[in-house]
Amino acid sequence: MGALIRIYAVVGLVGLVVGCGELAAAVDVAPALVTLRGQLVGAVPAERAHGVAGAVDLRVGLVWADDLDRDAFCIDHGRNPLLSLLPPGRGGRGGGPDAEVVLTAAADVGCADSFRFVPSRVAASAAIPAKPGASFSLELPYLPAADDLWGMGFDRVVYGSVVVWDDVDGSGTLEIIRAKIFGRPTDDGGEERGDDGDRRRRGEGTDSGAIFHPVVDPTDRDVVHGASFVTLAEPHTRVVFREGAFDTAPQYYPAPRCDPPPVGFSLMTVRGNPLAPTCEYQPLEGARIDVAVRPAAELESVACGLPRSVSGVPPSLQPVLPNGLATDCLRHFEWVDDPVLRARLEDEQDASCAISCVGQTEMAIADKRAACPGVLHFDLCADRKEGACADEEDAAGTLAELPWMDDRTTPHPDWWTCLP
Known about the structure:
Layout: H1 2-28, E1 34-41, E2 58-65, H2 72-77, H3 105-110, E3 119-127, E4 135-140, E5 150-152, E6 155-166, E7 180-181, H4 198-201, E8 211-212, E9 223-227, E10 236-243, E11 264-271, E12 278-283, E13 288-292, H5 325-329, H6 339-352, E14 353-357, E15 362-367, E16 376-379, H7 392-401
Parallel strand pairs: 1-13
Antiparallel strand pairs: 1-4, 2-3, 2-6, 5-6, 6-9, 6-10, 7-8, 10-11, 11-12, 14-15, 15-16
């Protein structure tokens, strides 16, 4: 009897293994939950950008959206494409058709459209002929991952843009350029693990280290030629997946006054005034989406991930950052005896760095060479528990009390250039 039981057990185990293999095979060839269909409108340039050799390797893909770019410095000092649509005197900085924004040097270089589509992950992609009117179909075999969805509990949503790009590096996917984050230095000369972005997505902030916005060789960068959703500030079409109730709390690419999207996959067309748009929904299965070809310079941000900004100057952000932008942009050259060489080094620094002071206790730095916009924002008063400096005397006291001060008799470090 025992032998028979063991035989049955072995047979059952073999069946389980075989069954698992069949299950794995079934997962690999899972049928599409929904198929996204559309066509290319317009002609893609025959030659690749930036003098890259070879024929255009065109691909189309569904790219899920990350959170909006909510950089505090850029919201206050950067571009606002909706400002002219606000009533005069509204919007903090004044609205109306004649409203103008005087950008600081750092904001001009480092602040993108705060309402732009920010890519998170490519959900699916396929090759597409580089000719006008080319049709495409994208099969989506899986639901969006939990990390792609925005909302609370089971009430979540994600939006996507259908993007067409030249796959310059031949990877088969759109390379999303992301800021690199370095951990705080440790006592033994090592480095703590830096923020990988997940904490930012969960709303826990980004305060664990230095940030470096990478410089990418243009000849290695994928070139976007079309996208159905580029910014909230213009009409667009987005792919939607919703589960549960519609949660408006995250303010995730809001469409004011529009009805919530239906549950499941749908196609959302947004038209009219971005502050009071009209929205139309249709089931994704059976719908067709047109992706218009546009100048590549207008679409560079579609491949730029969420910038990582720093507020405050914690001890980890001393004058020397590990491989960081501030090392180059805050360097002084008084130690160079040769005046010609010193002038050349200073000119090179001015050519690559944009530094702006907002009062005496705020500094913003942007790298003109960076592949994507991004700002290092140092707000000294933000380190204080009360949150701000009440006046100039309070500001001077803050500067004198900062923990990274080596010389307590000096009211500011040598690299801080925002004092008169």
